[in-house]
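Researcher: Sequence recovery benchmark, item below. Answer with residues only.
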């Protein structure tokens, strides 16, 4: 666990690119990473709003959080956009200010961040937790701001919950807290595996992703119950039809006015 790049350990400028990934010339960037592809769009603005609300939640916790804040993104079932949400949130955080941000794929069964960032096959969290590699070798550097991405890696699915519940995961999070200001975790669905509950209770805050018009309320309630005792900071409604979003109130001479 001691193989940390010197530039990371020194907390200086780093994260030039992800080797063999989207950071190299000619590699396409996934269009769903709107924090990069459409930074001035409505979706990117919503991620900025979410980021500042989460930072406000952290500020309310004050000294209760030691080191970098750990925020986990999960959902009730698969297909609700957790990986895209976590990736855009981490990218937004890394670009918003001089903050060092880590994005970790904790879905050891079906991790998707490596594909989303075009990282290809490389060691990840699974190899760190099984002792096959050290965290410094698993850190993938991305050009957009001070962002590091740790993919899921490869491990038999049956072992994932025990690995995440083991001491090496707790040690890894502790080390990341000393290296980064904010750590975002892409976590498996709460109702699908035991992994989500294991990871959620190690995070400072949880964001529950819900797909609009698709996820039943009972399913969301079930996910909340399964995370009982974990600090849920809020929910993200994903896939909202823009036509159903109310227009903002007009501003006249610095005052909000009611619409007609």
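Model:
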């Amino acid at each position: 666990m001691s193989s940390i790049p010197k530039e990371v350990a020194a907390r200086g400028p780093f994260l030039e690119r992800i080797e063999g990934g989207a950071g190299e010339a000619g590699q396409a960037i996934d269009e769903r990473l709107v924090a990069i592809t459409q930074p001035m769009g409505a979706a990117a603005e919503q991620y900025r709003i979410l980021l500042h609300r989460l930072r406000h939640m952290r500020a309310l916790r004050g000294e209760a959080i030691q080191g970098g804040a750990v925020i986990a993104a999960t959902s009730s079932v698969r297909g609700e956009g957790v990986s895209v949400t976590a990736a855009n949130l981490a990218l937004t955080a890394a670009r918003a200010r001089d903050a060092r941000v880590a994005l970790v794929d904790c879905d050891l069964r079906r991790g998707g961040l490596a594909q989303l960032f075009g990282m290809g096959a490389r060691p990840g969290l699974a190899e760190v937790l099984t002792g096959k590699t050290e965290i410094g070798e698993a850190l993938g550097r991305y050009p957009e701001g001070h962002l590091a991405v740790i993919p899921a890696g490869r491990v038999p699915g049956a072992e994932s919950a025990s690995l995440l519940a083991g001491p090496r995961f707790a040690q890894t999070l502790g080390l990341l807290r000393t290296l980064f200001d904010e750590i975002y975790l892409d976590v498996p669905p709460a109702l699908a595996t035991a992994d989500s509950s294991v990871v959620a209770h190690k995070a400072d805050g949880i964001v529950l992703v819900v797909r609009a018009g698709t996820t039943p309320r009972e399913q969301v309630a079930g996910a909340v119950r399964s995370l009982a005792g974990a600090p849920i900071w809020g929910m993200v409604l994903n896939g909202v039809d823009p036509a159903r979003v109310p227009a903002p109130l007009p501003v006249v001479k610095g005052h909000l006015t009611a619409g007609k």
